[in-house]
Amino acid sequence: MSNTTSSKSKASTLAKLQALITGLQKQFPNGQFTLGNTVFTTAALVQTLQSLIDAINAVNTAQANAKVAVAALRVTVATVGPVVLALKRNLLAMFGTATDILALFGLEPRKAPAPRTGQELAAAAAKAEATRKARGTASKKQKLTVTGNVTGISITPITAPALAPPSAQPATATPTAAPQGTAGK
Questions:
Q1: Spatial separation of the C-alpha atoms in residues 128 and 131, rounded to whole Å
Q2: Whole-structure pTM value
Q3: What letter would DSSP give residue 183?
Q4: How would residue 179 be classed by pLDDT, with cut points 50, 70 and 90?
Q5: Where are the alpha helices (DSSP H) in 96-170?
Q6: How many CB atoms lie within 10 A of CB 24?
Q7: pLDDT one-digit tens code per residue, 3-58
Q8: Which residue in 13, 22, 57 sits closest to 42, CA to CA?
Q9: pLDDT given for residue 70 in this prediction
Q10: How far, in Å, CA of 97 to CA of 54, rounded?
């Protein structure tokens, strides 16, 4: 039955199984069926179908409980996670390189960064310079040397038109003039 119900929703599967049970009990209360090589009574078929319904309902309940548990876990991690991180940092600061004591807490000392070679330092400096040029960034001293060059300023006064007093008569449409060259024809 799993092949026929794989693309259907659980709710529709439950409804169809319940309809099968109801129909069997109504039409064949004392019936007997041979399915495959096995003989089933109506009561045995109802019990078999009901076991599938119970299994689907158990999965639905488990999935709902899992969602609640995952949500609770996320809330707990959000509140306890920063405390754990702060505790680890504090223990690392307290015991630094004492590997025996840190091992009691399940921690390892911080690894010292490997010293850079001359080539790595030169490559990093070249990359930083190229990045500054690409972004157009400059130091404070270089920014002070940048000035604008103004050649002339012309000020144009803006005057607002005087507001006309509101007229009591509605505005009338003015007749449009005929286009030029068509008046004499």
A1: 5
A2: 0.46
A3: S
A4: low
A5: 99-104, 118-135, 140-145
A6: 19
A7: 444 446 888 999 999 999 999 999 988 888 888 889 999 999 999 999 999 999 99
A8: 22
A9: 96
A10: 58
**Residue ranges covered by each domain of the chain:** 2-104
Q: What is the pLDDT of residues 83-139, one digit of tens each?
A: 999 999 999 999 988 889 999 999 998 888 899 999 999 999 999 888 888 888 888
Alpha-carbon distance of 93 to 101, in angstroms, equals: 12
User: Rounded to an integer, what distance in angstroms lies between the CA atom of residue 120 and that of residue 117?
Assistant: 5
- Tell me how crowded residue 102 is: count the other CB atoms within 10 A of its CB: 19
Which two three-digit tokens encode residue 83?
């405390």
pLDDT tens digit string along 35-50?
888 999 999 999 999 9
Contacts of 46 (CB under 8 A, 6+ apart): 21, 24, 25
CB 54 within 8 A of CB 36: no
What distance in Å separates the CA atoms of residue 65 and residue 67, rounded to the nearest whole number? 5
